[in-house]
Specification:
The longest helix is centred in the middle third of the chain and has 15 residues. Among the domains are: 48 residues, no CATH class; 42 residues, no CATH class; 93 residues, DNA Binding (I), subunit A. The protein is built from ten helices and eight strands. Helix content is 45%, strand content 17%. The strands form four sheets. It has a two-stranded antiparallel ribbon with strand order 1-2. The chain has a two-stranded antiparallel sheet with strand order 3-4. A two-stranded antiparallel ribbon has the order 5-6. The chain is elongated. It is an alpha+beta fold.
């Protein structure tokens, strides 16, 4: 066999490579120890004589690798390294290239999405203290970041925050909160998306016809649409007295009562 050039293995010494058979290669780290008696700083000819005319070659990592999924030959840098797995002269790479690795991970995630979610939910329910402590430490270390994220989320979900505060306010009083989105849509449609009191058509809010302080829950037979002006003015007042003082029209009260009684019946 004709040897044409020397390659220096990091931290081990010189060894020869043949002209053919290793056209593309990369050597990383130290070469493995040779078989036989330990020798130091031997020439290639001495090493060949020591091992019966055979040159001990280090393990080579070829510069190219074939993906097991798409079958395309690519350079090794296009394959993810496997964590905590190395060989004597390099890092073990995934059998999939990066695009195929992401595709396989995505398929696995969606094929086991519900099982993984249930497993995570079960683990969190049995480790509540651990999860709470972890979240608390994260908030303390990233206070500004958490505040910015919370502000951004509230800005994108104002209606959701509004609904949550309404529901929480009712539940804190020990009152029912059973209004569904469908029931709310029906109520808004009945009043033609106008204020139930002044007939203003614009941005509307939920108004407890019987105030929360008087025992009125967030239910289908107690919620009516109201503009911000009427809702703020009415507050905790008796609805009949407030309507007479503000509008002087008893018919408004009767029309609302008729609708609410039909929902409760």
């Amino acid at each position: 066999m004709c040897y044409t050039r020397y390659v220096q293995a990091i931290g081990y010494g010189a060894f020869l490579l043949p002209r053919t058979g290793y056209s593309q290669f990369r050597i990383v780290g130290k070469a493995p120890p040779v078989c036989g008696p330990k020798t130091s700083r031997q020439s290639p000819e001495q090493r060949m004589a020591t091992h019966g005319g055979r040159l001990a070659m280090p393990r080579l990592i070829t510069a190219r690798k074939t993906c097991a999924r798409c079958g395309i030959e690519k350079v090794r840098e296009e394959f993810y390294p496997k964590k905590r797995m190395t060989v004597c002269n390099g890092v073990v790479r995934s059998k999939y290239c990066i695009p195929c690795h992401l595709a396989v991970a995505r398929e696995d995630y969606y094929s086991n999405h519900f099982q993984r979610r249930e497993a995570n939910r079960l683990w969190m329910s049995t480790h509540r203290e651990q999860v709470s402590e972890k979240n608390r430490l994260y908030r303390e270390r990233n206070r500004e970041k958490v505040c910015e994220l919370n502000k951004a989320w509230i800005g994108r979900n104002r209606q959701h925050v509004y609904e949550y505060n309404r529901r929480r306010r009712t539940q804190k009083q020990g009152l029912p909160s059973t209004l569904t989105p469908g029931q709310k849509t029906d109520t808004w449609s009945y009043f033609d998306s106008r204020c139930a009191y002044c007939k203003y058509k614009g941005e509307l809010t939920e108004d407890h016809f019987i105030p929360v302080t008087c025992g009125g829950g967030r239910t289908w037979d107690n919620i009516v649409p109201a503009c911000k002006s009427c809702n703020s003015s009415k507050r905790h007042s008796d609805p009949l007295k407030w309507i007479i003082i503000r509008f002087g029209d008893f018919g408004i009260y009767l029309s609302i009562i008729e609708y609410l009684e039909r929902q409760s019946g």
